[in-house]
Amino acid sequence: MPRRAEPPREAVPAREQVNACRRCPLWHDATQGVPGAGPASAKVMLVGEQPGNEEDLQGEPFVGPAGRLLGEALARAGLERDDVYVTNAVKHFKFQMRGKRRLHKTPGQLEVEACSIWLEQEIHAIEPAVIVALGATAASAVLGKKRVALSTLMDAPVEKEGRMVVATYHPSFVLRQRSEESRRAAFERIVASLRQAARLAAGPRRR
Ligand code: SF4
């Protein structure tokens, strides 16, 4: 008996679509929009907050210092960077000028909500088994809640629409720690969360 054809999956947002987006004012000062990247077959999706300075210039997610740290954490957790889909809750870089430097500024709730259309499209296109939210902004965007307690979520992954959501620190949180000990502890927390995500992704699908 012929197999019933699967309905076609939604495609991830194209770079041109994100670049042309005017749903919030962040496009105005940014160099370009930064869509997610990774294989359509990825079982694990990592969601950060927004592109940083390097990402804004290169047009790719997680290619700056935080991205390099994330790569190390993925390797420690036994995950290949090329096997996961990486993206951000907000696709344009929000910053404030300090002299000649562009300093990261946390996106507001309205910007996160405006940009959720792209994140939702990515989730529907990739259909990951597990989403890892890197930081509170990402967790709030993924769960569709205005406020989330990252510390509570980190200890207890939650299920949303048939997929597991694991929350952990954003790699930039590690970079902001003042002592070597704090940096190591925050980094190990991310590694532990990524290991948990890998275990969950290897288990049976919930949908
Ligand atoms: S940040 Fe998101 S919602 Fe705002 S303009 Fe860019 S793509 Fe559109």
List its salient traits:
two-stranded antiparallel ribbon; five-stranded mixed β-sheet; Uracil-DNA Glycosylase, subunit E; 207 residues; binds iron/sulfur cluster
SS-based structural class?
Answer: alpha/beta
Radius of gyration: 17 Å
Indicate the proportion of strand residues: 5-15%
Number of strands: 7
Mean pLDDT: 95
Count of structural domains: 1
Shape: globular
CATH class: Alpha Beta
CATH topology assignment: Uracil-DNA Glycosylase, subunit E
Per DSSP, the total helix count is: 8
Give the neighbour order of strands across the main sheet: 2-1-5-7-6
Distance between termini? 24 Å
> Ligands in the structure?
iron/sulfur cluster
Uncertain runs with pLDDT below 50, 5 residues or more? Answer: none
- Helical content stands at 40-55%
Order of helices and strands: HEHHEEEHEHHEEHH
Query: Architecture in CATH?
Result: 3-Layer(aba) Sandwich
The profile of the biggest β sheet is: 5 strands, mixed
Give the full name of the CATH homologous superfamily.
Uracil-DNA glycosylase-like domain
Question: What is the fold's blueprint, element by element?
Answer:
Elements: H1 15-20, E1 44-48, H2 53-58, H3 65-76, E2 85-88, E3 95-98, E4 101-104, H4 109-126, E5 130-134, H5 136-143, H6 150-155, E6 158-160, E7 163-168, H7 171-176, H8 180-202
Bound molecules: iron/sulfur cluster (SF4).
Iron/sulfur cluster binds next to helix 4.
Describe this structure in words.
With 207 residues, this protein is of the alpha/beta class. The chain has a single domain (30-201), classed as Uracil-DNA glycosylase-like domain (Uracil-DNA Glycosylase, subunit E, 3-Layer(aba) Sandwich). It is 41% helix and 15% strand. The chain is built from eight helices and seven strands; from the N terminus they run αβααβββαβααββαα. It has helices at residues 15-20, 53-58, 65-76, 109-126, 136-143, 150-155, 171-176, 180-202; strands at 44-48, 85-88, 95-98, 101-104, 130-134, 158-160, 163-168. The chain has a five-stranded mixed beta sheet with strand order 2-1-5-7-6, with helices on both faces. Strands 3-4 form a two-stranded antiparallel ribbon. Strand 3 (95-98) and strand 4 form a beta hairpin. Helix 3 crosses helix 8 (180-202). The longest helix has 23 residues, at 180-202. The protein is globular, with a radius of gyration of 17 Å. The two termini are 24 Å apart. Iron/sulfur cluster (SF4) binds at residues 18, 21-24, 26-27, 33, 90-92, 111, 114-115, 118. Residues 18, 21-24, 26-27, 33, 90-92, 111, 114-115, 118 line the site of iron/sulfur cluster (SF4).
